[in-house]
Amino acid sequence: MAAKSSTMPGKKSIFVAYFMWLFTGIFGGHHFYLRRDRHAFVWWTTLGGFIVGWLGEIFRIPRYVREANDDPQYVEELARRVIQNKKPPFSMNRFTGMLMVGYSWAQMTMFAIPPDSFWGINLRYLNLLIPVALGLDKARRQVVKGNKDKAKTEISVCDMDDSKAKPEGVWTVGNIGNEEGSLKWPLLGAFAAYPIRYYVFDDSIWFTIMLLASACAFDSYSKRWRRTPKKKTHNVKRVSILATCACIYLSLWCSYLYFHGTITDSEGDEVPIYEALHHFFTSPWWLDVKQCIAETYQYAQHHGWYEVWKQIIDLSDPHGEQNAYRVLGVNRDSSQSEITSVWRKLSRENHPDKVKDEAERRAAQERFMEIQQAYEILSNSKHRRNRRNKKDNSDEINI
């Protein structure tokens, strides 16, 4: 029945899911296709759960498809689990995922905070966001609605835009599956263990303790089945929400690279990126570029952007005239007779027959061909201008 329902309109295809898993899996493309937006975001931030999670999904995709299609067998099985277990059972895979993603997000948050004063402002107090970033990894999960009193149990899986899903915990590992949990307990666990960092200076130790405290608090006191019906969300809204989350995550990377990244100069010395950027914007090259942009803008204000475009085309030398003038050593004011005289002289001096050595003859032949091409370009250009001028003069006489 699951295979039959997958071909119905609006149903998800297991073939498409596997195809997207293979080619876009580490970025969460198959999860986005199956409307598992939280899972997709986690996979995007961790490159498929550090590759291991992506590989492990090869046998779980059929279950994901049945869940997305509300397959009757899947719904009945889930209903039995809800009835048999008052609280969702412990899952080592989920627990390990929470630890790994929580550690990754908390570390990124810590690295994104400036170590020194920025514009005279001490931002070290932002370290208090580390437990928040860690706790967000365990906030809310997808939903199950089960009615024990009815003969037919009704179950549905919540989407990302559930009205009760607040921003503080809707795009994390804790949001994946058919469970939920309030944000209070993982945050309390993380903040309770956070002061350990002032006594244990090894980041790996106090980070791990804080992670375990937060994860255990969630699993012990917060985790439960969720009984809220799902709501369909338009793809535009889904993409906009994921894009906003992606921008926030990428801003952490940018902040980390800006404050902690270094580049190596030609002498092998490391220079912090924020210093290099500051010196770049005061460098003569950038000041010249800035001045050129300002002059271009002023020119466009007086003559229009079309004239600017014509200037760009002329400067790009589409016909090769500028290079031809350089090869022959003449200027734009030179007449056709002067160009021909220089061409003949250079042709005699660089003729390949005058060179006996094979290597030098090859170089002389390339130079000779370059001279011929340059003369041909300039001659054609002169002829085009002459024809155009004669045509304009004849038009004026006719008028």
What does this structure look like?
It is found in: Membrane. InterPro entries: DnaJ_domain (IPR001623), J_dom_sf (IPR036869), TM2 (IPR007829). This is DnaJ homolog subfamily C member 22. The structure is a single chain. The protein has about 400 residues and is mainly alpha-helical. Among the domains are: about 1-70, no CATH class; about 320-399, DnaJ domain (Helix Hairpins, Orthogonal Bundle), CATH 1.10.287. Helix content is about 60%, strand content about 5%. The protein has 18 helices and four strands. The chain has helices spanning about 1-5, 15-25, 30-35, 35-50, 50-55, 60-70, 70-85, 90-110, 130-135, 185-195, 205-220, 235-260, 275-280, 285-305, 305-315, 320-330, 335-350, 360-399; strands at about 180, 225, 260-265, 270. The strands form two sheets. Strands 1-2 form a two-stranded antiparallel sheet. Strands 3-4 form a two-stranded antiparallel ribbon. The longest helix has about 40 residues, at about 360-399. It is elongated. Mean pLDDT is about 80; it is low at about 1-10 and about 140-170.
